[in-house]
Write a structure and sequence with these properties.
29% strand; alpha+beta; four-stranded mixed beta sheet
Length: 136
């Protein structure tokens, strides 16, 4: 039987805690990188044009599907990087994240405001790193 151990440190000594992410996360096993996902449906159409909440929900659904392709789930995620065209979208992104990731399983995270994404109607892009058990 293989196992992966993921350790999350929400607030190392001397670092201000955040309820939105873990400051440090590490694990042992197989590393999985998921490219930045946008709010495209299976046919390549944008879901939720102009609606950050709808886009964030679709992005997390796409992340779920990509993680599943590697045999992973959100419990295996150790890092998320958020790219948003406006920091005002972050509450909607966090709400969508909270629908799929438990508060005691929060990964390390970075949020970056960008001037544009690959298409002008896109508001949110998220990439993920996960750690799975090493294959026997």
């Amino acid at each position: 039987m293989t196992t992966n151990a993921i350790t999350r440190v929400p607030a190392p000594e001397g670092v201000s805690p955040s309820p939105q992410y873990s400051h440090v996360v590490w694990g042992t096993g197989r590393f999985v990188a998921v490219s930045g996902q946008c709010s495209f449906d299976a046919d390549g159409a944008v879901v939720g044009a102009g609606d950050a909440a709808a886009q964030a929900r679709q992005v997390f659904e796409n992340l779920r599907r990509c993680l599943a392709a590697a045999g992973a789930g959100f419990d295996d995620v150790v890092k998320l990087t958020y790219f948003v065209t406006d920091m005002a979208h972050m509450p909607a992104v966090r709400a969508a994240r909270d629908e799929v990731i438990a508060p005691d399983r929060l990964p390390a995270s970075t949020a970056v405001q960008v001037s544009a994404l690959v298409r002008p109607e896109l508001l949110v892009e998220i990439e993920a790193y996960a750690v799975l058990p090493a294959e026997a």
